[in-house]
Amino acid sequence: MTRSKKDIAYEYLRQRIISCELKPGDYLDEQEVAQSLGISRTPVREAVNRLAEEKLLQLMPRKGVVVSQLSVKDAFDMLETRQMVEPEILRKAFPNLDRESVTRYRDYVVSKIESKDATTEEVSRDFDFELHMYFAERTGNSCLVDIMKMLMTQNQRVRAVMASIRSERVRDACREHLTILDAILAGDEEKAVEAMRLHQANAIEDFRHHYRTRQAFFM
């Protein structure tokens, strides 16, 4: 299916924001974006409005468009919310998880652990986003899907800021994903839910201990 110009602009800007290529506080030149993409400013403006609704951009009267700031509190709030909701999302989704998809995710995690990719973030395929959204979508609850998309979008920005100094956390997260997926394939719901709870707790503790090294990115 052909993507609209608005969608092209949206995806282009969103990727640059969540990867921190466009850093918090950076101003956005809509005309420059339009020229880079070879489109008019109208679809760029529509994309900007959508990203503003998602709180990735801010429209500043008489100043222009700026990439939304990250705050330490917002990051902790996001991580805490994930810790509260994701174990229950996995529990609700568990009967609907299909073995083929889970096996495919597991194979990818194993290949990443066995390669140098286990210590890097891949912007081209955000596996973390894909996997956690898969669990949300399998709940069949559209509200949970919307909540998770918002949380994971915020999480992508935090991960992009932290990944360059926390390659160990990327590797550890891969192993935690593997534990979750192995429990699912074994049909052990309680073990999978507990592994998800531990995965989220570890993410909080890692951020708590290391965010100060990236203080310039946070309000």
UniProtKB/TrEMBL annotation:
The keyword Transcription is annotated on this UniProt entry: yes
GO molecular function ontology, one term from the record: DNA binding
Keyword Repeat attached: no
TM stretches of this protein: none
Domain spans labelled HTH gntR-type: 3-70
InterPro entries: GntR_C (IPR011711), TF_FadR/GntR_C (IPR008920), Tscrpt_reg_HTH_GntR (IPR000524), WH-like_DNA-bd_sf (IPR036388), WH_DNA-bd_sf (IPR036390)
Superkingdom: Bacteria
PROSITE patterns registered for this protein in UniProt: HTH_GNTR
SUPFAM superfamilies: GntR ligand-binding domain-like (SSF48008), Winged helix' DNA-binding domain (SSF46785)
Key words of the record: DNA-binding, Transcription, Transcription regulation
Protein's name in the database: HTH gntR-type domain-containing protein
Species per Swiss-Prot/TrEMBL record: Bifidobacterium primatium
